[in-house]
Amino acid sequence: MSYRAIVLDVDGTLVDDQGTIRPKTLQRLRDVERRGVRVMVATGRSEMGVLPILRELGLDTPAVVFNGAGVYCPVEERLIELRILGKRAVRHALEFAREEDLLAMVVRAGRKFATRPRDDHERQAVGLLEALELVPREELPSQALVRVSVFSRRHGDADQFAATFSACLEDRVYLTWFPLNVLADQRGNALQVIDVQPDCGGKREALRLLDERYAIAPEEVVCVGDASNDVPMLEAAGLGVAMRNGMPSALEAADRVIGDNNTDALADLVDELFGE
User: Fold this and answer.
1) Spatial separation of the C-alpha atoms in residues 267 and 265, rounded to whole Å
2) What CA–CA distance (Å, rounded) separates 226 from 249?
3) Helix %, strand %, coil % of the chain (to 5)
4) Which among 8, 81, 84 has a CA at the least distance from the CA of 47?
5) Could you give all domains of the chain from N- to C-terminal order, each with its CATH number?
6) Which of 76, 81, 92, 194 shows the greatest Cβ crowding within 10 Å of its Cβ?
7) Whether the Cβ atoms of residue 218 and residue 240 lie closer than 8 Å to each other
């Protein structure tokens, strides 16, 4: 199969555990992008969180952010698509966090707000976030939100937490959930996290964008990821590839598995599929 685009998750895939793109990977991606291959990033990060990655890669292809709820253009340096959570979904999510006395964070384009952390796990969870403002729970904004995140260490595993949380929701939303310690900068953190985003196709939105903007069909796209939020794009792509360090759901959804994110496995994959 001749592929015309590659879509990359960021954490656990494109970057290593130190948060950097390996030099060989960076060079290979720049090379194939110059030859006309579309290189796209699809991430759960906000536009602020992914901007340094886009600048380092030097891409002009828009990036899927907020797990599919937004699209950021690095050329225009703005969000060109953004879905907003409904008021009722926001209210139910924040009521759940208040009733359970859980750390909560809400995100608008360009700004993030969280309740004040009360222990080391909560401080670690919010300590590295960009543009974060800590406020009393009653001062959390509730309008024009693209995400509500709720953190817990009292609900067993992430699946159990998500099941309990979902029971309080009535609106259609897009949920992602995972143990926070799957992130390299959160090792040892006991919190589980649920992200509530507007109803969308998840990272599968990257394939829709490539088709609409560049007439690249899903079967012409390679998607690479490592986590449960990557499953929608791994399943829809012409070739879904999981990193060896990935979560079981990603490994199961992928067509093939390569080495982990601390090796040159991604660069080798790019050489194999897009080499001259």
Assistant:
1) 5
2) 9
3) 40, 25, 35
4) 81
5) 5-82+201-274 (3.40.50.1000), 87-198 (3.30.1240.10)
6) 194
7) no
